[in-house]
């Protein structure tokens, strides 16, 4: 009856017939998807084996189908399924035909690679010979998918762009590292320094990586251009495929079911309701839709659901039409946008791959946790019993235990990649899955068998571009990674399984390769030995251009000579490349050239991928005439505009001036008919000589070829300016605008989204809102009575930082998980952010909170080190300032060292050093002393400025001053002095209202803050002066504190101290009673006024007083010293207005005050804000923003002059329609632009003068300043943030400071208005910058 059916089909049929509870209908249908299918690639691979069979389905009514349950897997439609491979042949499309040595090279390469016995070959093509063109033809004739390795991201982007132009009908994708910057986790044993991992991911590049892997699953005509990052782990291809889903119209499941599906595929929800980004989805319960944007797509799609039947009703994609995309002025968010500007595409199904390559099932996470715990116990035993490293054993146990806690709760932890072996289920030593494993799917439609460690089963070709650089990188990756992790494992920072989170070894990489072609102008020994007959040569360029002629010139006049060469070539429209030895030299040379009139910029590895592409673009579009680089400028840069390559210090023999490096650098000028190279050197090294000889050999052959064939050289035009990053950014921005246009039409009330905001306890919300806006540390507790906190952190502004946890701005899963269990927060005020950092490190290392992933094992802080070479040594260089991780870090006996600090962060140190180098011209003088003509004069000036900088800046700071030596700060070693504060209680008092006081007992143990206790007491009506009554309150609090042993909160330190220091002295009887409650020998005293511990006592007491004041403010019993808008009463406003009248010598109190502030981002998007306060309250209807129009840059003075002129030109006139004040409620002209009683400027004397100039140009005078043409005068003043000094014009017309204290009543009002103006300016600057970036 059912002949020749497979056993699985027969069993399925038999099982269905045995079902007693449901009517059964046998129906044979062709192998097409039923509406409602929801299949996985794994099912697809099994069903595609039976293409001629039929399927069996049940006949059920839609109402009988369960809601939010996975539908039955059915085979998808082959016409829509991406796994049905598109087999387009490779075909080169170009107006050029092979010429020169290209035809012979293509023929030889194809012949060699067509032979199965030939595994390797080499293309030895000189710069400009058309290697990319030859590669395209070779791939097309072999008809094989290809992986092309490049040494850098920049070269990979350029090559990808070129190959896309040669193979437009095929998939040419880019796969490079998606990090903007990356600092790996490491431990430096010599300095006992732990460095945590720091990185930033570029979402655009991540999208390109997803496009590459999707192309490998869906097409056979794929070329992937990759950097060496492709040999790092990428996640299991099988898991990635199994997690993918095909959503079809009619598929069963409601919006919540597909929400769960997307969550399992690692898609997230956006932080706000503006719209989705790649890898996100947005729920709209009002319209019953999901908007999802897969990372590999250039536009999102919207999935609509039928609520009645709980099925997918529609899938649409909205994109701009061709006419809309080509218009550079169209505003896709405008209400006037026409329907013809948008294209709506209806889809039958949509295949979605996961948002990340690393997909792990929940069941595997728990299995991995068990294995991790087992390995941890083994390694801890080894560290204790074999290595006798007890500190490392404890550290490892704590770190891994915390990681396991987070893995089980959230599925993620910091450094989760170090557990990849367990999460992937690999055995020890088995290499990770990489892009090479994904290449097995190329041309297979997702049906490749994955067996780790075996050769690829699909037939594909490896091409290694610039192989002389790329191959050494491949060999070095594994060894560098292992060496770094050896110290981490040895010192208890990582488990040994972290070794298996690694790049491929050299042997493992080549085991996966069937055939490879190396491409280089200077191939290494490895390539030459492996290739038949040494490879294939290409010495003749299609353009017939010969190699550049090289000149050798002395270094004494190299800068002056280089400037002359740049000017000559700029006059002809040609460009120059200058090669420096170091990144610092490149930056300094660029600055030197700009200072002397040349248009220059620099490029090196510290710039991120997009910035490097932009630097090259500046040279191509004539923005600059010279680009200064280092090693990054050697290989593959296609710049035909460059006619000169200048190599500085060419006689410094080494890697950067080797034969290979010199030949490659000279080749950058080989695409221009006027190409030349200059070696600035005082001698000819062996590498220089070999380069000169090789260049002469090539030139002889090329000149001879041109003469024999009667050919003339022709300069190339080069490739298009746009890089692959520009192209993809345009696609992303265009579709982002289309998305905004669509959602702008939707009523705001219809937009809902799943926020990242955690579910919080109301108590914690109230506590955080009452925190002080001061530096310090915060501790989150699960309960108020808990001994150990969940998390400890430091902040420059405690209130602002902790509010981020409440709003969900900290979107890390582990933090949101933690916040849901937080019931109490405790804050500790410190004198400075440095002290907060120091205290945070000590407390984390002591208490080891569960959610502090990175324990502060390194208790050192960065310092500035002044290194000065000793006389009569071989180190005759210049003295330098540099950042070091801790004091006494350097030990070279040939140098003298001085240390200044410590500082709270490396960022702070770098900022200080940068400002010092600019202020004292240290970088400029050092560069001229090394490369200029008057080297000795520059050296003398440098030494003088270096000593001035050291004495005027750093030595002042080391004595207790910050910045310019104005604001005193507390040295950290005094506040947390372990000897003096070994066992001490510090007691402070703050008066409250209604005759009450707050007494705080602060416990210091071993130099660490351990806890505090607050006592609220009534002073009573006893006789005596106020100090006596306060002292009596302190005594009562301490008596209760030490008498009650229930105050003991921990057994790891003694609750009763050896020393008690009170803010006020106590009488003898009180001291005697307290001593009887304490241990024998305990002292009770007030801070010393003289002696050895005077400073330590003063700092510790101030620490206690600050925390006591903060506690009093937090319970809202006293008014904070700084005015806030919410807490200012009408009485206070009148007092402050009267204070302003007196301070500024006004005839009446100022009721209307305007304040102006300028804000910009790195000189761009400059905005000036105007805020208006009426009767001490903000009048937001009159707020305005002014876009700076007369110039570009970051000149605050010119900005204020322009804005004040424009503002007061409108007095009594019509408001100009310049788009200012967008987004604000418009009012009548008379109200919005009336003359104020006082104009306030955010700044000092310079800003005040600039504002005066603008008002004068508008014809408005200033009281006590110059009179205006209209006779109208306005009072003008400014307030400087540094010391809160208020400047104004006095009777003699000069600018003077008119306040004596920063906390005067009038000054407090000006400070509030100034802060509001700054906030409004920054807000509008960021809004303008966001709009510009979206339109660019």
TrEMBL record:
Task: Give the Gene Ontology MF terms in alphabetical order.
Answer: ATP binding; ATP hydrolysis activity; DNA binding; excinuclease ABC activity
Q: What SUPFAM superfamilies is this protein classified in?
A: GIY-YIG endonuclease (SSF82771), P-loop containing nucleoside triphosphate hydrolases (SSF52540)
Q: Name one GO cellular component term.
A: excinuclease repair complex
What region holds the Helicase C-terminal domain?
558-722
Q: Which BP terms from GO are recorded?
A: nucleotide-excision repair
Signal sequence span per UniProt?
A: 1-23
Stretches assigned to the GIY-YIG domain: 773-853
* Record domain UvrC family homology region profile: where: 1122-1251
Q: Which residues form a coiled coil?
A: none
Stretches assigned to the Helicase ATP-binding domain: 112-258
Region listing for Disordered, in residue ranges? 59-83
Alphabetized, the UniProt keywords read: DNA damage, DNA excision, DNA repair, Excision nuclease, Signal
Name assigned to this protein: Excinuclease ABC subunit B
